[in-house]
Amino acid sequence: MRTKTKRNYIDEWYFFKNDKGKIQYHSLCEKCQKNCKQSFRVKEIHCPKYMEK
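User: That's the sequence. What structure does it adopt?
Assistant: Structure tokens below.
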């Protein structure tokens, strides 16, 4: 089993980082209280809040 290094931890956030290097969530997830936040890059949201509608 591989241990997580600092580099691997940083690389996990690459999908969430915008051009300025800051973490950015999808516009529907920005103010949501659930912890299933998704990246601004996704095209289709998979969230229990929106799936029940």
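The helical segments are 6-12, 48-51.
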